[in-house]
Write a structure and sequence with these properties.
The complex is a heterodimer of chains A (498) and B (305). Chain A has 498 residues and is α/β, with parallel strands linked by helices. Chain A has 22 helices and 17 strands. Chain A folds into 2 domains: 17-172, lyase (Annexin V, domain 1); 189-495, TIM Barrel. Chain A has helices spanning 17-20, 61-68, 73-77, 85-96, 100-105, 115-123, 126-132, 137-145, 151-157, 163-171, 175-182, 214-226, 243-259, 272-280, 296-301, 306-319, 336-339, 348-359, 382-398, 417-429, 453-463, 469-478, and strands spanning 34-36, 48-51, 54-57, 189-190, 194-195, 202-205, 233-236, 266-268, 288-291, 328-332, 366-370, 403-406, 434-437, 442-443, 448-449, 481-482, 485-486. In chain A, β11 (366-370), α19 and β12 form a beta-alpha-beta unit. Chain B is an alpha/beta fold. Chain B has a domain at 89-287: Rossmann fold (3-Layer(aba) Sandwich), CATH 3.40.50. Chain B contains 11 helices and 6 strands. The N and C termini of chain B lie far apart (67 Å). Classes of the chains: A alpha/beta (498), B alpha/beta (305). Chain A binds chain B through residues 73, 76-77, 207, 209-211, 213, 215-217, 219-220, 223, 227, 239-240, 375-377, 380, 410-412, 417, 438-440, 442, 444-445, 447, 449, 454, 457-458, 461, 486, 490-491, 493-494, and chain B through 48, 51-52, 55-64, 66-69, 73, 77-78, 80-81, 84-85, 87-88, 116-120, 151, 211-214, 288, 290, 292-295.
Chain lengths: 498, 305
């Protein structure tokens, strides 16, 4: 893989750096099974590790990052994946010994050609960064896992982390590692209600309709609310991307929510420029939505830029109808940059982390990965989709976002319904802020399988979680829930007045 | 015995010794739960389900057992899932095109798994197929239709030939010349670019099995592009989806695709730049670039009593 990295600084740690830090931080020498090359040899040769007497060398930090990634069909498609499991371990051994400073100095896409790289570099919290810059990725993993490090500590470090750092440490973690750290993270946001408190699991009601039939959307929404879903947002993906249609759907939803005194937010997920025009029409809009990609070129393919989202955010602060202060909603998903040939040779996990670097600029109320939506050419099967869901949730939380997940598959991916149900429980256990919810999990417009109305109350009961406090109180008042149990009107959509 | 050991033993006694749970009470006859059926006839539906089915195909008003689905709903769901997975998993038999009187082509993909994982290979023709295309087909036509498996070989084999025939007939009725009928295996949409370019067609039209939804593995989509050549993007194409008995039927779809083809040739463009505003009467909903026709939800599981 030939590619040019415009590195700004050393490629790897000074040989003495790890050793001199031993006094300050718990650091164990690498086990004897592998040995990481160190010493003052030519830059490109230093990225090397020996596993079982075979020496593996890597040309760039980007190559190390890509090859350290767990198996993903999208990285194979891009031609950047490790050849085999042993090369993957060698890459991880090298990655474990890079410092967080090395990662800041070697962003996945060069500073000169990518506005996201520049924005992250300029907006990084220097004092938070200074506290951890000397740690190797391996040490950072151990710091995050240690019992003494709680949610507040992670909140302190988040603003000093670049997306590449979150991606790097993610690659050294097992699924249970990812869950163990993610559940510690503390991200609480507020629009009309308060999302992300400990012991809470929220959900988006996604009442999509193939022709935007407003009656059909409202019928589905009312049923969702009657199952205790919808405290994250009532969010509709429209079939028609026009300002008039966006305004019509929002106005209709707003009326029903107001009539029933329902404490939640609404959103129509049309393009951000369409939503801005809808705001000009004077319609209610609690949250503004946009899909994000992890590179400037990827965002260009989505028809957006930092300047445009800045403008949209500013407009929402003035014209948005939620109490706030968090008013933005973003969706992401591994593989989106590659699908528009905008990946610059970077792996899909790192690019996904860069979406979160973009999102956190706007203190969003919601961010979720649509993990299995893009298809098997990026995430092939159940294990890959499960892994990616836990990775994305972890990275988002680590970077300070109220991270949710659309746990889903398309019908041409090899994931069973049982595997998908398992993923929802894993995510809830990991402290996932919200999941989606649809009738029987079936999106009749986008043709894929996600979380169902029934799943949300099931997962909440399995993991001992409740909706947001405001929504919880409303559900009790309506008789939909009786404490943590289904109430008398549970699953009866007529309880919601049209 | 240590103090801790004593405490542990005392705790065990306190928790019931060898029988940590009390014996279960005797169970009287369990009442049969009320019938909760996936509604297939109006009189069986709840009032809410009846109202909902007039507006949406979402499965609404299905009730619940605890927080989960009734057995009947589970079976319906699993049947719908099986339909979708079967459609994706089925391969187009190698001899199907020949037996159906079509020129047989294949992309550079070798296996079904590779087809799902390598969209890039599904967009280019194999060398053998390129040879066939250069020797055995009519060139310089107005419209080159290409039947293909896409993500549902089932749909291709079920209604593909009918759609191809209706489309061909409708094109000829409008005075358009139509290329040699052909069928491509392991094909992605963009394969039409290379095929259309090779046969020097003005319009390439690939008719292929679409990504199945729950319970719908029989849908075809059509993607049309003017002046086909490698490098065309989705913005250069017009598409029509949900071509099947419950959506747009092949006869109607064939007519509309011919109208689209004619418009492309008249305006010498396709995709975003194509102006269809004067054709809404003939095109119906297909005048929009991404229209999806509404469908009905069909009950798949019937239990004989």
């Amino acid at each position: 893989m030939v590619r040019s990295w415009v590195g700004r600084g050393s490629l790897i740690p000074e040989p003495c750096r790890v050793n001199t830090r031993q006094g300050r931080l718990p650091h164990r020498p690498p086990p004897l099974r592998y040995r990481v090359a160190k010493g003052r040899i030519a830059g490109s040769m230093r990225l090397a590790a020996t596993v079982r007497n075979v020496r593996y060398t890597f040309d760039t930090v980007g190559e190390v990052m890509a090859k350290a990634n767990p198996p993903k069909s999208g990285d194979v498609l891009a031609g950047i994946a490790a050849r085999d499991a042993v090369e993957r371990v060698a890459a991880r051994a090298v990655l474990a010994n890079l410092t967080l400073a090395d990662l800041r100095n070697n962003p996945a896409i060069p500073y000169e050609i990518d506005e996201l790289t520049r924005m992250v570099e300029h907006s990084l919290n220097e004092s938070a960064y200074a506290a951890v810059r000397h740690l190797t990725v391996g040490q950072f993993r151990e710091w995050l896992l240690s019992t003494a490090v709680d949610g507040m500590r992670i909140r302190s470090v988040s603003p000093g982390l670049t997306p590449e750092m979150a991606a790097a440490v993610c690659k050294l973690m097992s699924n249970m590692d990812l869950m163990t750290v993610a559940v510690k993270c503390l991200v609480v946001v507020r629009a009309n209600n308060t999302l992300g408190l400990p012991g809470r699991l929220s959900s988006r009601v996604q009442p999509n309709h193939p022709t935007d039939d407003v009656d059909g959307i409202l019928l589905s929404m009312r049923e969702g609310l009657s199952y205790g879903c919808g405290d994250a947002v009532i969010g509709v993906n429209p079939a028609t991307d026009t300002a008039e249609s966006t305004a019509e759907i929002l106005t209709a939803i707003d009326k029903v929510l107001k009539k029933n005194g329902c404490p939640t937010q609404h959103c129509v997920l049309s393009h951000v420029s369409v939503q801005m025009r809808a705001l000009d029409l004077g319609c209610p809009m609690d949250l503004m939505f946009q899909s994000l990609s992890g590179s400037e070129a990827g965002n260009k393919a989505f028809g957006i830029s930092i300047a445009l989202i800045d403008e949209a955010w500013d407009k929402m602060k003035h014209l948005g109808t939620a109490r706030g202060p968090n008013v933005m909603y973003f969706e992401t998903g591994q593989g989106s940059a590659l699908s528009s040939a905008a990946h610059h040779g970077a792996d899909q996990l790192t690019l996904e982390a860069r979406c979160y670097g973009f999102a956190r600029r706007y203190d969003p109320f919601l961010v979720n990965t649509v993990v299995g939506f893009i298809g098997p050419e990026y995430l092939e099967d159940g294990p890959q989709i499960t892994r990616a869901g836990l990775e994305d949730h972890f990275m988002g939380k680590l970077l300070g976002l109220p991270m949710g997940c659309d746990a889903c598959f398309t019908y041409h991916a090899r994931m069973s319904q049982d595997e998908l149900e398992c993923l929802k429980v894993l995510l809830a256990t990991a402290g996932c802020t919200y999941l989606m919810s649809l009738p029987v999990g079936d999106d009749i417009m986008l043709n894929y399988q996600s979380t169902s109305y029934h799943d949300i109350s099931s997962v909440r009961r399995l993991t001992g979680r409740r909706p947001t406090p405001e929504f919880d109180a409303w559900l009790s008042e309506m008789g939909i829930m009786d404490g943590d149990k289904p109430g008398e009107r549970f699953g009866d959509p007529r309880v919601i007045v049209p | 015995m240590s103090r801790t050991r004593q405490l542990i033993d005392a705790l065990r006694d306190q928790m019931g010794g060898s029988a940590p749970l009390p014996p279960p009470p005797p169970l009287p006859r369990v009442a049969e739960p009320p019938a909760r059926v996936y509604p297939r006839r109006a009189e069986e539906k709840s009032a809410y389900a009846r109202e909902a089915s007039a507006h949406t195909t979402a499965l609404l008003g299905i009730g619940h057992v605890g927080t989960r689905y009734a057995t009947d709903v589970v079976l319906q769901f699993q049947a719908e899932l099986a339909v979708a997975h079967e459609a994706v998993g089925q391969e187009l038999p190698d001899d199907w095109a020949g037996k159906s009187g079509l020129i047989s082509l294949q992309s550079r993909v070798q296996s079904h798994r590779e087809f799902l994982l390598r969209p890039d290979l599904g967009r280019r023709l194999s060398d053998d197929s390129l040879g066939v295309l250069r020797t055995a087909v009519r060139r310089g036509v107005d419209v080159q239709p290409i039947l293909a498996d896409g993500l549902s070989a089932v749909a291709c084999m079920q209604s593909g030939l009918e759609l191809l025939a209706e489309f061909t007939k409708a094109c000829e009725a409008r005075g358009l010349s139509v290329g040699t009928p052909m069928c491509a295996k392991f094909a992605r949409v963009w394969l039409e670019d290379e095929i259309g370019y090779e046969v020097q067609a003005k319009v390439a039209a690939i008719l292929l099995g679409e990504r199945p939804g729950l319970g719908t593995g029989d849908g075809l989509s059509a993607y049309l592009v003017y002046a086909p050549a490698i490098g065309k993007t989705d913005g250069d194409r017009n598409m029509m989806s949900n071509i099947h008995a419950r959506g747009t039927v092949p006869k109607v779809a064939g007519d509309r695709l011919a109208v689209l083809s004619k418009a492309m040739i008249d305006q010498r463009t396709s995709g975003v730049a194509l102006d269809l505003s004067h054709l809404t009467a003939e095109l119906g909903e297909a005048a929009g670039r991404h229209h999806r026709a509404p469908q009905e939800r069909v009950r798949l599981v019937e239990v004989q009593s």
